[in-house]
Design a protein that fits this description.
The chain is α/β, with parallel strands linked by helices. The chain has ten helices and 13 strands. It has one domain: NAD(P)-binding Rossmann-like Domain (Rossmann fold, 3-Layer(aba) Sandwich). It has helices at residues 11-22, 45-55, 69-74, 76-97, 128-140, 166-172, 193-202, 219-227, 256-259, 268-282, and strands at 2-6, 26-31, 38-39, 59-62, 100-106, 147-151, 154-155, 176-178, 184-185, 188-189, 207-211, 217-218, 236-238. It has a seven-stranded parallel beta sheet with strand order 3-2-1-4-5-6-11, with helices on both faces. It has a two-stranded parallel sheet with strand order 7-10. α1 links the parallel β1 and β2. The longest helix has 22 residues, at 76-97.
Amino acid sequence: MKILIFGASGFLGTKLKKLFLEKGHEVFGTDFNGNSDFKIDATKFSLVLKIIKEKKPEIVIDTVGLTNSIDCERNPKKAKNLNYLTAKNISKACEINGSKMFFFSSSYVFDGKKGDYTENDSTNPLGVYGKTKLMAEKEVLKNKWNVVFRVDIMYGYNGKNCPNGIFQKIIDGTEIGLLEPDQKRSPLFVEDIPEVILALNKINKGGIFHLAGPDNILIKHFLISLEKIIRTKSLIKIGNNQDLKIIPKNSNLNSEKIKSLGIKTTPLEEALKIIKKQIISQKL
């Protein structure tokens, strides 16, 4: 199968490209900085359409985005361009080419007042990040065969000298400031995602799917669990709470819809063992 990944040099894009290649698929990646197969500014529709017409992928995966909620508040125009405009362009180009699009949204489209959100719950984003993701969802879903994944915080390990998401800060020993340490999350092991994409593509399902791990856990406890792979002393600090109003208190997602298709996600304890083995094998 031919797969095109936008944002292929980021944490998620890097992992997806690697795993799909290992499964024998033909995979091409694009990014803004020229660190992948093709340098593409996805805010330019003509460039997006050109690469999709040229490669004619069956599946297009959009991992482009400004995902830090504080950065989005400080740069709302940039957030709109990266979270909304890029998705709009990719969706339009996919429709012209007949490609199936997979878009990554966020649990931050909800206000976090109740948690355990299903796909049918009303959205109410608190900040720019969630608002721009919700705008993008509406564009992507204009094609009923496209898939929107609402995901919780993702984690995993790509290897040395690769983007590793939140885990990179732990590897580097960088202090992690939490605005809301008691925020409830359902972390998603990034290596679960390719099988979900292939399963939904095989049965040609479209629409919104909540994709999260099976563990409901406080963000501080989740990060401490990741840290224990590397060190015993925690570097987590409580950040400035002035931005708490944009952080949903309980952003757990209900994944029963995806489970009903026979798709399971990896428990945190099992995923941590996998990551530890990967790190040991590379002698980090």
